[in-house]
## 1
Amino acid sequence: MLAASLRQPLRVRACWAGHRRGPQTRQNASDNCIRPEAGGHVLGTNPPQPEFARSAFQQIAQMENIAITPASPEELRSGELGRKLRHYNYGVVGEYPEQQYIRLSARDGNGRLLGGLRSFVFLRWLNIEVLFVEADVRGSGLGSRLLAEAERQAIELGARNAKLDTFEWQAPEFYRKHGYEEYARIDDYAPGFYLASMKKSLAR
């Protein structure tokens, strides 16, 4: 349905007749007109030139041929979209290392997985996605060890700060104890519970 809707002809009409200068310009003849106070782009006080008109119609024609589809496995493996965004970012903040992962697991002598941490470093920030410890070993210091090791590795990779999201019923107090502070909150993210966004400076 979405792809089909994108193929519908686009009707764009600028309100040149009776055009006035100034930010309060408004044309009442049609709701399809471009009005500065409604967020439209102000194109000028003169009628569109032939070059502009040709360019606009070319863009409309191109849009009619665009279809949105699920990404293919090949596209996902290639990472082409991420590279395009990264090179765009380079033009603003300069080059930076690609995303670097820190993935830790804790097992007992029998090979049982007791806990672990999954995170990555990007733009000098450690982003903690998952930290989990089995119930029967909570309070043993394992969570603190996992967090400290992730922060240590992140600093070696150039991270200056760390951030994470945690639900109200999970571990906000645990992270506060380790120097994290809440900088944002979404109430009722899960019915009756908030989601806290927390951060910490890793500078020494």
## 2
Amino acid sequence: MTRTSLKDTNCSWAQGAEAIGDKWTILILRDALRGVNTFSGFAKGIGVSKKVLSQRLDHLHSSGLLAKEPTEAGSSRMTYQLTDKGLALFPVMVALGQWADRWVYGDGNQPMIPVDRRTRQPLDEVVITSEGRGPLTSSDVTLLRNDEQVLARD
């Protein structure tokens, strides 16, 4: 099935969806954030066909979310690392996981719990704040076009 590209859509959410792609890409990003960095590691953790995995890794590389380099000089095997752009998705991935834990699994039924590596304590819920206000809800926020008046922070 051919997917319709959103690359020419002037919308931040559409561009985010275009960069991330689909469910397999989310799982690749999840595993990359956990330190997986080889094709075989991704294949084992995700359970997707080699063809789909190869396509998604290429997409993440061309989108600038993953860097790839040969495991050793002259090798066709690659090692994948999240770029700064890919690492910037960390709060998005945590928020998505927290949403699924609450609304899909229900509190106390999470299959995995993200914890602080040092303290082993669960992460706080991802919240949206603004200039000392928060947490904000969708009713506290509006969307302005880029050409509309946006007040600068002091």
